[in-house]
Amino acid sequence: MNVEALEWQTDSYGGVNPQVVDSLLERGHLELVVQAAREREDWFCASGAVRDLRAAGEFERACEVIRPFAETRWLPAVTVGAAILLQRGRVEEALVLARPDGEGREPGEACKVYAEVLVQAGQVDAAIDALVPHLRDERLLSSLVEMTEGQGQDERVLDLVTSLAEEARRMHAEGRRESLGRALDLQANVLERSGRVHEAIAVLGADVAARRSDAEIMRASYARLLARHGRIEELRQMATGDHEYAAFEPLVTAWEEMGRAEQAETLLRDYVAATNCPGNYEVLLMELLVRQGRLDDAVEAVRPTFEDRWNGLLQSTVMMLAEHGCHDQALRLLEERSAEFLEESAHWVPSSRWWLMGESGRCRDAIAEIEATPELEPEERGPTLAWLLAQDGRLDEAIDLLRSCSGDHATQLAGLLVRRNRPLEALAVIPGIAAGREAENRRQEKNRRRGTWSDTGDNGGRADESGRPAGDNGGCADDPLS
After folding, report:
1. Are 161 and 145 in contact (CB under 8 A)?
2. CA distance 441 to 9
3. SS3 readout for the chain
4. Could you count the other beta carbons within 10 Å of the beta carbon of residue 224?
């Protein structure tokens, strides 16, 4: 077992897919998942098994499962191992496990994990000390602010954050490219939680007005700060006077919560009509109308975008309707499209149709359509037909079909085998870690030679296991886990 193999699993969903692990555990196959974690060195099996063992209070067994993974010093496994030890009251051992050894590739991230364990152990001052050398990394500065909330250390944290925020302001004034922009909104964050709300608004408002950071996150933070404290007029001015799109969503939400949804709707419709790039406002309008239960109005609000291949909201609308059980209405939207649009969108419209048909109980109609579409790529035909067969209750036919298909459909096949109560077979069809990495390398090389690219894993941009379309748009001798 090594860090590189573990990182590959999380980056590529390699090994036993988390959906398959969850299905196995839901059906009572915990012992099999524990065995797979050990024998296959599979991270998703290990993390799933540990989750269930902890929930059952079996902390000793959870430690045994996670120990070989944590021994690699891979940070996600170290985090889980330390959490188990803390649950068992073995604080010093948790700290030994999490303490950085100076050999990792990401010393700052290792210090973050250690600091989190220190906070959980009630040693907040020590946690801050661990992070101080790394606070110029904005991710770790954000982590410092997040992990110290409610820990009684706001003054110390504020001093650290303010020092970096002032440096960012000096760099901006001198025309130098600043790299500490997050310190500006984080300073306001700590001021706010310390009860100094007016100061937080004044400080961050001045930074936004002076454009001291181009980060959209800072402007969005300021807008949300105004909304949280009822500064609606200032928020409205930011949105409409300063034309800050980041202020629109907090303003719309605030008005909606105040019973002024009609005012929010009017504002959004005005901006949709007036701006040359209405897409973002149309999204907010659709979401507002959906929250109001006005699905038909939401569809009509964005209908003008449906034929726009690049910026249209057709697929978002189809998914919204499906989530509300309106599959037939979603199908009609697809069927109403022009021949030109359907031709340009041939890579996702048909799969969306078949998914909607399967979800609404028309599996056999969808199967007939697929069988009458000879030009469909084999890589899509087999998995889609298998999903529809399974959706129609014909699990054995779906399993046989996938076994006969070329390509890598191991995760989908494993999921069906689990549903058929054949868990050993399910795990057997999934390649081990080394074989999976080798297969992925071959796929990537093949794609490079063809001049194409596809997502890793056996999904390849097609529908996932649920049928939903992908869319276009070494351990120490003093081992604390032993």
Report:
1. yes
2. 13
3. CCHHHHHHHHHHCCCCCHHHHHHHHHCCCHHHHHHHHHHHCCHHHHHHHHHHHHHCCCHHHHHHHHHHHHCCCCHHHHHHHHHHHHHCCCHHHHHHHHCCCCCCCCHHHHHHHHHHHHHHCCCHHHHHHHHHHHCCCHHHHHHHHHHCCCCCCHHHHHHHHHHHHHHHHHHHHCCCCCCCCHHHHHHHHHHHHCCCHHHHHHHHHHHHHCCCCCCHHHHHHHHHHHHHCCCHHHHHHHHHHCCCHHHHHHHHHHHHHCCCHHHHHHHHHHHHHHCCCCHHHHHHHHHHHHHCCCHHHHHHHHHHHCCCCCCCCHHHHHHHHHHCCCHHHHHHHHHCCCHHHHHHCCCCHHHHHHHHHHHCCCHHHHHHHHHCCCCCCHHHHHHHHHHHHHHCCCHHHHHHHHHHCCCCCHHHHHHHHHHCCCHHHHHHCCCCHHHHHHHHHHHHHHHHHHCCCCCCCCCCCCCCCCCCCCCCCCCCCCCCCC
4. 18
First to last CA, the chain: 18
Could you list the pLDDT tens digit for every one of the 482 residues in the chain? 899 999 999 999 999 999 999 999 999 999 999 999 999 999 999 999 999 999 999 999 999 999 999 999 999 999 999 999 999 999 999 999 999 987 767 889 999 999 999 999 999 999 999 999 999 999 999 999 999 999 999 999 999 999 999 999 999 999 888 778 999 999 999 999 999 999 999 999 999 999 988 788 999 999 999 999 999 999 999 999 988 999 999 999 999 999 999 999 999 999 999 988 899 999 999 999 999 999 999 999 999 999 998 899 999 999 999 999 999 999 999 999 999 999 999 889 999 999 999 999 999 999 999 999 888 888 889 999 999 999 999 999 999 999 999 878 999 999 999 999 999 999 999 999 998 889 888 888 777 777 654 444 444 334 455 555 554 443 333 444 44
- Specify whether the CB–CB gap between 410 and 431 falls below 8 A: yes
CB 247 within 8 Å of CB 235: yes
The CA angle 91-97-98, to the nearest 5 degrees, is 90
Helices 3-12 + 75-87 axis angle, to 10 = 90
pTM: 0.87
Which amino acid belongs to residue 422?
A: R
- For residue 393, give both structure tokens: 């209750």
The first and second tokens of residue 173, run together, are 């004034």
